[in-house]
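assembly run, all chains below
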Amino acid sequence: MTAAAERSGAASAHRIRRGTLLRSEQAQGIALISPTFLYALILLVAPVLVVIAHSFWTQDFLTIDRTFTLEQYRIALTEPIYRDLLARSLYISLTVSILTVFLAYPIAYYISFHGGAHKSLWLFVITIPFWTSYLLRVMSWKVILGYNGVLNSGLMGLGIIDEPSTSFLYNTNAVIITLTHAWAAFAVLPIFVSLEKVDRTLLEAAKDLGDGPIRSFLRVTLPLTLPGVISALLIVMIPTVGDYVTPKLVGGKDGVMIATAIETQFKRGANWPLGAALSVITMTVVTVMAASIVFVIRQAGRRVR
Amino acid sequence: MPDRPMIQIAGVSKAYGSFKALDDATLTIREGEFFSLLGPSGCGKTTLLRMIAGFDTPTEGTIAIDGQPMDGIPANRRPTNMVFQSYAIFPHLNVDQNVAYGLKRLKLGAAEERRRVDEALAQVSLSGLGKRGATELSGGQRQRVALARALVMRPKVLLLDEPLSALDKKLREQMQVELRRLQQAVGITFVLVTHDQYEALGMSDRIAVMFGGRIAQVAAPSQIYQRPVNRQVADFLGGMNFIRANVVETNGTAITVETAGFGRVKTEKPSGFNDETRETTLGIRPERLRVLWDDAKAKHEIAGTIVDRHYFGEITHFIVDVPGFEKTLSVSESNNFGADDLPVGAPVRLGYDPDALVALAD
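ok done. output:
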């Protein structure tokens, strides 16, 4: 009898605990987001975990040896080829994102400040290049930059060069140009949104206090739109590090990036663990770089005041 | 040097397409004066202020500040500073940085800049709040920061665009007193835009009343209140009884009119009065009519019946029906003599001073 009483007492205590847990706001919050949270878990976290797991294993032809080892990381970090490819990828993505922001800012500024009643039309026009496939857009740069391309014939027609130059296509610069063009519109939107949020009276106040247009831009508009600039940089930088279509099509031998090496390990190289280790290293480096960009820009923003 | 002109506005108009926001405004604002532009929304007062500041350009006419014509001179090179209606406090800067914003360009040196910022913050009673972030301020504090930020520039003219409209009543009344005190202390010419007649009456040396893009009257507060030029001005500046009157005679600056209760009244002729007009309006403020108790006598009095009363605490408003008048009269009586005891339906005699009667152009 005592045992039964104890059991029922324990059960009721359990019920009470469950009751308060379900009634707490935190629990309700978690319950509310759980479907989407599970969805995100399956589609985002699980694949990453699979990749991380693979990076600690080894592959012997077709079988995966699941003993824990750091061998893949040793190879990935010591082989000069991977270091060079990673460095080049970072260089390209950083250059592309900075160029993109420099190109996108004036566009966003124009639309926001001088777009008048046609702001949404302008934004619509900017999306037009995206109606064609990414591949086609990359291919069209091949037409522009190639040996018999638009650029070469144009320059020859103007008499600036005598014979077609081979220096436009199949190198790092070709990759940078193509990626910058492909991602420009993605940078316009966050910058546009942050410009729209700038209270125009603040610019009048700056003018009233003696600032000309350039000064008020540097002291008011730019600091207030830094969040937009940061997100534009990240939106472009993070995916371009891992791009492998563009380097493959216009990069030639000098434009190979880390993603191509990763692809090779997963396919022809048949070394999934090494590919996984390279992926994990790339992700880590991109995260660190993104965080430091955010930090540096925030600090610079504070300095401008 | 009193009465030296600081702002001269000559024939200024502003048109947006076919709409005239401001129509041929001519006005002189004196040095060291607290001047108000008063009118309902859409009367062109803010347009005029923005043209003085340099944010808008006149379609016609010229504005000169301290003798210098301002044509083509942008806002950043004018000797004016503005307190914006929304205050426009820079959200990414703290109070000190906001106040020092305009000083940075002057390259005063750190010590001098610090001294002027502290001085300005002290003037608006914000000493010690310099390190507060712009987003951590209350409405009243934001208003003071905006004021300090403009005053620190030591402008010749300080422009205030409805600076008190976002504050609650208590704070607004307190700030009115403070603004007036501050203006007296710094001696800078203040130009205030407002739609609140009490604000304008309480703070200004002179007021320009504006309607529909035109300046209707420019005068000192008591003059504007007691001798409005027309019905519109009279009505905008608080309650007034309007009585239809026949014009008996016009003579130079004088006019004689006749009404039922008040009889013949000789008074000042309103400016721009058309001498051919045979009928006009006679006005008297409700507080210039006083209830005569028991057997009290007044030199001039009219009699009527109380038809309604409204109690407002410090005063009671009586609606009095006077035989021969188309409309009832409003009378406001101070409650310290027991006016709240007077019942509806009681006969009442009202005393008045003929000086309080004013002839108005329609």
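The two ends of chain B are 39 Å apart (CA to CA).

The first helix of chain B runs from residue 45 to 53.

not gonna interpret more than that til we talk
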